[in-house]
Protein: DNA-binding protein
Organism: Caballeronia mineralivorans PML1(12)
Amino acid sequence: MQTLPLRLVPGDDLRGALEAIARANPIGAAFVMQGIGSLSVANLRYAGLDQPTRLTGDLEILTLAGSLAADGAHLHMAVSDAQGHVSGGHVSVGCIVRTTAEILLVRLAGFRFSREFDPRTGFPELSIHPQA
């Protein structure tokens, strides 16, 4: 395993930036082990819903985790608002960094991840490919 600490800056799209990093670097297979920071906008898709819910205001990232490949990401996040109310779900495009996002990626040597359509779920799901 190889670790890669990252810092995203104000205005960055959290999901977009992570996917761009995965496309631009020979990551192959990685997991987001943890992420903290703040957002001004969070687009979270809650369980069982097709569309994300847009949260705005001063939001703190409490947890961020998921898998990352060159062809996409599967990320979950919990955020709290200024009153301490917590929301969590699937990270969609449009989560905008407010002050910082500090993220730890772990690259898995010897593997390549891809997202492939699974007819059982109707979604592109993680496919794990061992590499020599």
User: Anything to note?
Assistant: The first strand starts at residue 2 and ends at 8. The mean pLDDT is 95.
